[in-house]
Amino acid sequence: MPSGEMGYGRMEQGPLAELLVERFENMPPQLRVAARFVLDHPKDVALMSMREQAHQAGVSHSTMMRLARWLGLEGYEDMRSLYARALRDTVASEPARRGADQGGDAGYSTAGVVADTLAAQVSSLGEYGNALQFIAAADLLARSRNLFGLGSRSFYPVANHFVHIMSFLAGGDRKVTLVGEMGGHGLDALQGAGRGDVLLAVGMSPYERTTIEVARQSARQGVGVVAITDSSVSPLARIARETIIVTANSQSFFRSMAPAFAAVEILAALTAAQSEVNAVERVRQSEEQLAAFGIYWKPPR
After folding, report:
1. Could you give the strand order of the β-sheet that contains 242-245, starting from the edge strand earlier in sequence?
2. DSSP string of 258-299?
3. Choice between 20 and 3, residue whose per-residue pLDDT is larger
């Protein structure tokens, strides 16, 4: 696993992120691969050799050099110097507990490392740059006519959680709909969607074709797309009007859904604050109705 996936400090996407995103569409295919690596692994740019980075990115070392010149730098070492300086100025959030410090207790060590990594990932969502993304996305959600949630496979539960929470902010003619298979209403739910409606699309690499195509078609219909994804140059980010960048990197064998779930809950809290709906009262009424139907368990008397 690249070292850039191990810590989540204030470095965000690095000192050249804005320039890389701006020029991404006009880059040749191999330069795009290299640029995405630099965007997604800023710590690796500072800490690894150019050849190591090229190997991790799956391109030649000459491609990394061409990327630096494409950005107006003399060579790749100039890029590394910029990222190294940014890293030195950063108070990185590294996992606090390591196996060597736990007396050989591998189970405790693994639990600690995974927990610390998740905590750092979720905490980074509140940093200034990320907070601005959330505020802009929540403003779009708060002004929406109808809301839709879209996610496939492992991201389906994230979209479902979004729809469940946002349903408490629905009222009048406003609807909140889960799009897709399983418990969703199917893709036909978006047939009448258009300007004023908003679709939250969740997807990370490797991207589900259905999610990308539905998000793209929704945007063509005038629907505002908010993306929760893993890169500012992901296919969803390039479709979306507003984008929330999270990571699915994990200290274990699986992709972590915790940051994406946290992002949904932050979005919901900000949207509720901007809405005229009394969300707390809506939740109370819903729980009372569910209790009346006997949904909740009660201890025997």
Report:
1. 176-179, 147-151, 198-202, 224-229, 242-245
2. HHHHHHHHHHHHHHHHHSSS-HHHHHHHHHHHHHHTT-S---
3. 20
3-state DSSP call for residue 242?
strand
Three-class SS of residue 14? Answer: coil
Confidence of residue 162 (pLDDT cuts 50, 70, 90): very high
**260-to-12, 181, 201, 266 alpha-carbon distances in Å:** 17, 20, 11, 10
> CA-CA distance, 181 to 193, in Å (whole number)?
18
Residue 11 is predicted with a pLDDT of 45
How many CA atoms are closer than 13 Å to the CA of 152, on its beta-carbon side?
Answer: 15
Per-residue pLDDT band for 222 (boundaries 50, 70, 90) equals very high
How high is the pLDDT of residue 148? 93
Task: Give the Cα separation of 291 and 24 in Å (integer).
Answer: 53
| C-beta of residue 200 within 8 angstroms of C-beta of residue 147 | yes
What distances in angstroms separate CA 166 from CA 52, 57, 204, 245, one per listed residue? 44, 38, 22, 20
Q: Name the helix (H) or strand (E) containing 201.
A: strand 198-202
Report how far apart, in Å, the C-alpha atoms of 224 and of each of 113, 195, 219 are. Answer: 38, 7, 6
Place of tokens 């929406």: 144
Tell me the one-letter amino acid at 233. Answer: V
The DSSP call for residue 5 is G
Q: Name the more confident of 76 and 215.
A: 215
Virtual CA dihedral for 38, 41, 43, 44, nearest 10 degrees? -80
- Locus of tokens 């991207």: 207
